[in-house]
C-alpha cells in the first residue's frame, strides 16, 4: 500500500480531500491512501519517512522550499497541488487522484 501526505495550513480541508481521494483511488483498484497534516507539522512528519509522496496545498506553497529540503533527505517526491485539484468535488478529486498516481 502506497501512502501520500497532504500538507496544508491547518489540516482541516485537506483531511476531507484526503479521505475523498483515498475512496476514489481505492474504488478504482489503486492501493493508495492519503493523509493530511498541518504545515507546522510538515517537516517533522516528512522526517519520519512514513510516506511515499508529499503534496503541498495551494495555501501553503510559500513553505514548499523548506518542505522540499526535508523531502529530499528521504528521497521522496514532493509536489505543489494546483488549485483546481484542491477542491472536494468530483472533478477536483479526480485531478488530485491523477496527480497522486503520476507522482507516487
Automatic annotation (TrEMBL):
Output one GO MF annotation. Answer: protein-N(PI)-phosphohistidine-sugar phosphotransferase activity
* Residues bearing PTM Phosphocysteine: 8
A Gene Ontology annotation in the biological process aspect, one of them, is: phosphoenolpyruvate-dependent sugar phosphotransferase system
Taxonomically, the superkingdom here is Bacteria
**Keyword hit for Kinase:** yes
Give all residue intervals belonging to the PTS EIIB type-3 domain: 1-104
Keywords associated with the record = Kinase, Phosphoprotein, Phosphotransferase system, Sugar transport, Transferase, Transport
- What Pfam families is this protein classified in? PTS_IIB (PF02302)
Keyword Transferase among record annotations: yes
Q: What is this protein called?
A: PTS system cellobiose transporter subunit IIB
Which species is listed as the source? Enterococcus florum
Amino acid at each position: 500500500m502506497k501512502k501520500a501526505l497532504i500538507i496544508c495550513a491547518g489540516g482541516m480541508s485537506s483531511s476531507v480531500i484526503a479521505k475523498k481521494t483515498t475512496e476514489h483511488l481505492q474504488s478504482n483498484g489503486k492501493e493508495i491512501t492519503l493523509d493530511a497534516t498541518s504545515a507546522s507539522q510538515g517537516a517533522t512528519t516528512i522526517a519520519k519517512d512514513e510516506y511515499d509522496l508529499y503534496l503541498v496545498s495551494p495555501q501553503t506553497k510559500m513553505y514548499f522550499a523548506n518542505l522540499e529540503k526535508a523531502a529530499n533527505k528521504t528521497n521522496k517526491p514532493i509536489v505543489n497541488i494546483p488549485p483546481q485539484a484542491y477542491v472536494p468535488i468530483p472533478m477536483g478529486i479526480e485531478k488530485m487522484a491523477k496527480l497522486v498516481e503520476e507522482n507516487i
